[in-house]
Design goal:
Four copies of one chain form a homotetramer.
Chain A lengths: L3 H13 L5 E5 L1 H14 L3 E5 L15 H22 L2 E6 L6 H10 L3 E3 L7 H13 L5 E6 L5 H12 L3 E5 L11 H19 L4 E7 L2 E6 H6 L6 H10 L2
Parallel strand pairs in A: 1-2, 2-7, 3-5, 3-6, 4-5
Antiparallel strand pairs in A: 7-8
Chain lengths: ~240, ~240, ~240, ~240
């Protein structure tokens, strides 16, 4: 699907197998490919957003995102269990090469003292100041949740150790966040998206993606989903800052 | 808080301690009491809906509800693990004395063949018919999710065994559903509700409850929350029926 | 495998497929059948004990037992989370129709105030006395772990409510205990048993079961495994009584 | 407790508070300190081994070890969930600065293709050979479990990528392994150790550590516990190699 040739072959295969409608499940890469496939084949395609990164425009959330957030917080809860007795700073790297949706929700849910996302610049000296102030005010441990795209987590550990004199420990969750049994939110979203996608194909839709806005199941043009940049909710970010102060 | 005398004493205590605003966290019982307390004391009160039953009007969901749904599905997943090799029907009783919000979401997320809620009448013979048809069509096990208020689960087990000749096993989740570490959805909702509740007190609100509608944090009169009956989402119920057919 | 005819057919199938050794994984029923199959077919058989009930003689423990114990305690932990604020007695029925191995380890690990197993007679009035004394001494909630073979859990709930005036709630774990991902103990035991079973077949053993005694992998005659009655560890039972007093 | 002065002060505090017996819970550092405290104060001390590292001589296992092993495997299971579709090598760093007990049990339980522990030298080119052979033989993903003391995990990732051309991803579990609710094995061990430690103090023991050997609760001199080097079970290591081949 990554070359023009591949897409033409895929289109042929679909036609020769009598496929007259397609449901494409995935993220922006999937939808970019699906969109080309539609243009080549003319076969109606409905996209279902399913990625732990939640970086798909036209929908509030994606299948798998809530699952990944919960996986991360259940893991970080275990760090919190012993954190206060260890008197350390913990840096936890979560997924998100380009976007900070996962880091933001994880950090807020975990009450992280610092949340680092690719969308917002930060200076290590500001982090060090915040940590030192937290110690002076009586905190005995702090958690920094960092999207992998926000910088090099191991460098950050060294810089904070040098800048504060505090002991810093690193956890890199990695692909743990891609597995596990789906949460209720992810499952119910899958039920709604799947059901609506089938209806849309039956209704004669050509190239759309299902999504959710508040409680409503909606749809957008498939190209919108991967061409538009979804905005990070800065109010959530500020809420996290207020609550961890 | 259950007697007029108790409420008057509570009002006195609040005043003598110089309390000039109250945040009441709980379900309809809590809000009924809080409303009386406001009338007696005049102290501004903001309610935060937090109950695993989700039976509070004026808000789509409550703190704790998503946690309880996930606790139940993680438990029922374990039944699914061995269900097909056991060739049995499993009845799982979940909480919900008067309302079926929990049973409905759990049943949908679990792909339960039958979901029984207090709001919708059912006949055991219809359930038996559905189960027998499922066996004829090749299913080797079925799960029935039942709100405790929908009937007597143990009687249902016996009636289905008599009506179908199938082996039926019972699980009663009980208070397992009230515990556990909160999910991301419950935590983030708590962050939003808590923050907004404080703002509302500062803004001079007298007797309201915070809630969520879609993605928006809203508020309703505190009395609305417990006087109004929140409707079960029948579209979800039908979706569950379609997907488990 | 339950009729002589079935066993003869199984023996034939094995021979006609050129099978010259068998590893039978299961509990006493499996080994009873395997033993007959050996006598009819002469094909060497090594049994591997794998049952959540742990009721197999000749081995300290079985594959799956530790998994089931952990599943039960993770569930009951959630009851403990809110138990003290509810001021109730919780009866939790765990698996074990004839034996109390599971109930005993779960009860000990959970610090249950009362553990009921089929091997030890009890009088409801003694339980009621213990519960009433616990309340006088300041406990605000109690957990009773009961093997399903120790009596009718729902009757017990009613009898305790009548005998103490306390509110009693029931949880029936049921088949939840049969599923889930295996624990480290169960997995490593499976590695050791499986490896040793293969070696034994290669060494020319005819009809044995592998087992574990302390840290040593041992073997016993296959018939011993299901004919002998494994004893419940009464020291564990007394330890549980002491620790929950 | 780290200076002679500190220990003398601790001894004084114990005496002035009328403490005539001490139970010290921890690992080798705790027991080293406890031993000095005994020599200075003469107060009888019984040690209880509780460390996730399991690096205490005189006992097969320690409180917390089984919990940490299970935490690690539940996390790595989530990597396995999507590993085959990603066609990658996953390096998972687990705790163990000086010893490989945790890495070994985790690796065996997880079926890891490679297990790296501080006690056994390895060459990166041998790992690369093994991985390339695995791919030729049809494996689509491999997991390497590495104790933190076995080398630099990030360097290993780069070396394997260069040596094999395969994509390699890193997870560093870190302090996640120190938290969480204890498993049944850890809880029951705590019951047995705690009960025996109290008995030993009552029996007039002066300076011992409780331990477990097979199924028997034993005791050793407290100094033995931290002076002796416990051996890694090389048979387990070979078993892991055989099963993952």
């Amino acid at each position: 699907m990554k070359t023009q040739e591949g897409i033409e072959k895929a289109a042929e295969n679909l036609k020769s197998n009598g496929i007259d409608g397609l449901i494409a499940i995935g993220g922006d890469g999937t939808f970019r490919g699906a969109s080309k496939l539609y243009r080549v084949s003319g076969i109606p395609i409905v996209g279902i957003p399913a990625t732990i990164d939640n970086d798909v425009a036209g929908t509030d959330t994606t299948i798998g995102f809530d699952t990944a957030v919960n996986t991360a917080i259940m893991a970080i809860d275990r760090i919190r269990d012993t954190a206060t007795s260890h008197e350390r700073v913990f840096v936890v790297e979560v997924m998100g090469r380009r976007r900070g949706f996962l880091a933001l929700e994880v950090g807020l849910a975990e009450g992280a003292e610092v949340i680092l996302v690719p969308e917002i610049r930060f200076r290590v000296e500001d982090i060090c100041k915040k940590l030192k102030r937290a110690r002076r005010e009586g905190k005995t441990s702090e958690i920094i949740v960092m999207a992998e795209g926000a910088g090099d987590s191991r460098d950050l550990v060294h810089q904070i150790e040098r800048g504060t004199g505090l002991e810093v420990r690193l956890t890199v969750l990695g692909h743990i966040q891609r597995g596990g049994s789906p949460t209720a939110v992810s499952r119910i979203l899958a039920c709604k998206f799947g059901s609506r996608a089938v209806e849309m194909l039956l209704e004669g839709v050509k190239k759309r993606m299902v999504g959710i806005r508040g409680r409503r199941i909606v749809s957008v043009d498939l190209d919108y989903a991967w061409r538009e940049q979804k905005e990070l909710d800065l109010r959530l970010y500020r809420l996290a800052e207020i609550l961890s102060a």
